[in-house]
From TrEMBL:
Pfam families according to UniProt: EVH1_PP4R3 (PF22972), PP4R3 (PF04802)
Organism: Accipiter nisus
Name this protein carries in UniProt: Protein phosphatase 4 regulatory subunit 3B
Residue ranges with Low complexity bias: 732-741, 752-761
Limits of the Serine/threonine-protein phosphatase 4 regulatory subunit 3-like central domain: 143-634
InterPro entries on file: ARM-like (IPR011989), ARM-type_fold (IPR016024), EVH1_PP4R3 (IPR055236), P4R3-like_central_dom (IPR006887), PH-like_dom_sf (IPR011993), PP4R3-like (IPR051137)
UniProt GO molecular function: protein phosphatase activator activity
Domain PP4R3 EVH1-like: 5-101
UniProt cross-references to PANTHER family, sorted A to Z: ATP SYNTHASE GAMMA-RELATED, SERINE_THREONINE-PROTEIN PHOSPHATASE 4 REGULATORY SUBUNIT 3B
Region of interest: Disordered: 667-805
Length: 805
């Protein structure tokens, strides 16, 4: 329909060089008697009023952009644009304009503006001559500055000025005037030259940049830009570039063209970043050519260095040579860091070749050496280089560390070096540790692991990581929670443990089998939940998030582990400790229980209601806990109905046989699991050795830990509770399950399951519950000193508050 095809928006360029919307209407081209020629008319779609009446002048330069825009200058400093809704309408009007001007529409669309301008210049000498530049003299500087400033608003006039400056070699003449002004201390002239040179930069022409940034001109250009009229004193940019900024050659660069290119890039970057004011939103494209100029220079530098393999080999040789002194090594690492930063400008295929060259020359073994050094600056630069490599190809890094594992001890593996750098970060805010944690996460993320026909990187690398590296990552966590309380609870330790927990939470979500083995073998969740006692709420929330991810998997193995270990207890203690405060901790704990209710996780619902409902029933500002009780009772009713539907002669025998079979299966699973897991992860017996090898910051703790190992563990003292109700955190779950057994109704002692979920149901006699728990817990958590505790606690099971019968 012609209406939408001819629908346009009219724009005019205002004084601030922003396009103003003048309205929407429909465009037509007709002969207007008053203007004596074909004209463009736009009538507003709202009321039919005339938005635009513009004669198509045979000499005006019209420009077609992006298939739906036509732009032209109506008079000096008055630019117009039509933005079409449809390409077809734009083409139609464009043909009319070209018809009037005697142009071929297809050629006009594609040809460069400069060429079209040159054609116009030949056709219209009277109306649109090339800009006449004033003679380059001191008394004309103000006039030149006004001219340069005035053309910036019109693309066409900018082109003409650029051509004039280029044709007359005008820039060099201006820079000679600058030297005269500076010698005469002519401040007014210097201020005008600042405006002129800044304006010429904003013309955004590569041909002019070539002249301005040449060796003979660039320092005078920088000199002109020192005399900003808005500053009381000129800046000393030239002094900085010549005296303060030192060009360091780690290995002498013999290629003079390469040296010149490096100098030029540094200085132009300095002009863009330091001297020129930060462009406003409307000026962002003003310096696009300057940005491109720097970009292509960097590409050239990287390519020239990369082709010189002798140069790079020499750099690597010195970097890994033990005889190299620390200052030299620091310079070499900084060179590589900048080299990698420049490489980001390369096209993808060239970047591939670049990193492959570095890998072939041995960048990873070299990084392994420098990342373990004492110098903070060197380590920081090495971390940046490592991050470029990990972002480029995580697989390349993984392949290297797996090959390395066959020849080296765990301590010096690259990933363990990275983990230890993360753990030993001295920055109170752990800036470096956060960066390293992000890189570790990328390396252990299965999403970017390859699976080929002959091997799967995922299984191989995760086996390697859990066998060789996981104990290093979790060492601070296990060391800090060994006595069922936070050993160190200062801010920096809390920050570090929060980072480790974030990584472990990521593992729970993405590694399923490996992390499940590890959590159960090390009883990791119990240790993590000790951190619920931390005075730092963010750390308590990290511990809670870890548990929430585990429960979110709805995996019955995990659920059984949680109920047998009575691992809801620290969470509920934290909720009660928090009292009536309405904060993130309160919301997060309630969300955990709400998730269990909504997803109807039967084994967990039964455990929570049977063990903790008395403490939670007073919480009425949410219906979560009442909802859990309702679900529990509904499930009990369902079980009873199912039981009643079985003929009475079969009921007790059949049910008891099923429960026993389940119990035997469960025992077998846990015992097998213990044997399998002992191979899949580092056996607990080796724990003290691994932790002893851990960095100095944990040695002190390890000594006190050994001293305490001979003593009997005692329960934590009860904390004062804001909620008025308290549990005692017990190390073993057997006492809790013993109490469970006593709570079962005597009438249904032989027939009613203690848990409502069939997969973990038990005969509800006290002896069976205690024996089963004891047997399975030893299989689940293999701590050498746990057995004494279990015996002690079994002899005097604590009574827990119970749901009334």
């Amino acid at each position: 329909m012609s209406d939408t095809r001819r629908r346009v928006k009219v724009y005019t360029l205002n004084e601030d060089r922003q396009w103003d919307d003048r309205g929407t209407g429909h465009v037509s081209s007709t002969y207007v008697e008053r203007l004596k020629g074909m004209s463009l008319l736009v009538r507003a779609e709202s009321d039919g009023s005339l938005l635009l009446e513009s004669k198509i002048n045979p000499n005006t330069a019209y420009q077609k952009q992006q298939d739906t825009l036509i732009v032209w200058s109506e008079a000096e400093n008055y630019d117009l644009a039509l933005s079409f809704q449809e390409k077809a309408g734009c083409d139609e009007i464009w043909e009319k304009i070209c018809q009037v001007q005697g142009k071929d529409p297809s050629v006009e669309v594609t040809q460069d503006l400069i060429e079209s301008e040159e054609e116009h210049i030949e056709e219209m000498p009277e109306t649109s001559p090339l800009i006449d530049l004033p003679t380059c003299e001191l008394n004309k500087l103000e006039e030149i500055a006004d001219l340069v400033t005035s053309v910036l608003s019109s693309p066409i006039r900018r082109e003409k000025l650029a051509l004039a400056l280029e044709n007359e070699g005008y820039i060099k003449k201006l820079l000679q005037l600058f030297q005269v002004c500076e010698n005469l201390e002519n401040t007014e002239g210097l201020h005008h030259l600042y405006e002129i040179i800044r304006g010429i930069l904003f013309l955004n022409k590569a041909t002019l940049f070539e002249v301005m940034f040449s060796d003979e001109c660039i320092m005078d250009v920088v000199g002109c830009l020192e005399y900003d009229p808005s500053l009381a004193q000129p800046k000393r940019h030239r002094e900085f570039l010549t005296k303060t900024a030192k060009f360091k050659e780690v290995i002498p660069i013999t290629d003079s063209e390469l040296r010149q290119k490096i100098h030029q890039t540094y200085r132009v970057q300095y002009i863009q970043d330091i001297i020129l004011p930060t462009p406003s939103v409307f000026e962002e494209n003003f310096l696009s050519t300057l940005t491109s100029f720097i970009f292509f220079n960097k590409v050239e530098i990287v390519s020239m260095l990369q082709e010189d393999e002798k140069f790079l080999s020499e750099v690597f040789a010195q970097l890994t040579d033990e005889a190299t002194d620390d200052d030299k090594r620091c310079e070499l690492v900084n060179f590589f860091k900048e080299f990698c930063a420049f490489s980001q400008t390369l096209q993808p295929q060239n970047r591939d070749a670049f990193f492959k060259t570095l890998a072939k020359l041995g960048i990873l073994p070299a990084l392994e050496i420098v990342m373990g050094m004492d110098d903070l600056q060197v380590r920081s630069a090495a971390t940046d280089i490592f991050s470029y490599l990990v972002e480029f190809s995580p697989s390349m890094v993984r392949e290297f560390v797996m090959q390395e594992a066959q020849q080296s001890d765990d301590d010096i593996l690259l990933i363990n070096v990275v983990i230890e750098q993360m753990i030993c970060d001295t920055d109170p805010e752990l800036g470096g540790a956060v960066q390293l944690m992000g890189l570790l996460r990328t390396l252990i993320d299965p999403e970017n692991m390859l699976a080929t026909a002959n091997k799967t990187e995922k299984s191989e690398f995760l086996n390697f990581f859990y066998n060789h590296c996981m104990h290093v990552l979790t060492a601070p966590l296990l060391a800090n929670t060994s006595e069922d309380k936070c050993e160190k609870d200062n801010y920096q330790t809390a920050q570090l443990l929060a980072l480790i927990l974030e990584l472990l939470t990521f593992c729970v979500e993405h590694h399923t089998y490996h992390i499940k083995n590890y959590i159960m073998n090390k009883d990791l969740l119990r240790r993590v939940l000790v951190l619920m006692n931390s005075k730092h709420t963010f750390l308590a929330l990290c511990a809670l998030r870890f548990m929430r991810r585990i429960i979110g998997l709805k995996d019955e193995f995990y659920n059984r582990y949680i109920t047998k270990g009575n691992l809801f207890e620290p969470v509920i203690n934290a909720l009660l400790d928090n009292g009536t405060r309405y904060n993130l901790l309160n919301s997060a704990v309630i969300e955990l229980f709400e998730f269990i209710r909504v997803e109807d996780i039967k084994s967990l619902i039964a455990h929570i209601v049977e063990n903790f409902y008395n403490a939670l029933e007073s919480i009425e500002y949410v219906q979560t806990f009442k909802g859990l009780k309702t679900k529990y009772e509904q499930e009990k009713d369902r079980q009873n109905q199912k039981l009643n539907s079985v003929p009475s002669i079969l009921r007790s025998n059949r049910f008891r046989r099923d429960a026993r079979a389940l119990e035997e299966d469960e025992e077998m699973w846990f015992n097998e699991d213990e044997e399998e897991e002992g191979e899949a992860v580092v056996p607990p017996v080796e724990k003290s050795k691994q932790e002893d090898d851990f960095p100095d910051s944990y040695e002190k703790f390890m000594e006190t830990k050994k001293a305490k190992e001979s003593e009997d563990k005692e329960n934590l003292p009860k904390r004062t509770s804001a909620g008025g109700f308290k549990f005692t955190f017990s190390h073993s779950a057997s006492a809790a399950n013993g109490a469970n057994g006593t709570n079962s109704k005597s009438v249904a002692a032989q027939t009613s399951p203690a848990s409502s979920n069939g997969s973990s149901s038990k005969n509800a006699t006290l002896t069976t519950a205690v024996t089963a728990t004891k047997g399975s817990l030893v299989g689940l958590v293999d701590y050498p000193d746990d057995e004494d505790d279990d015996e002690e606690e079994e002899t005097s099971p604590r009574k827990r508050p119970r749901l009334g019968s």
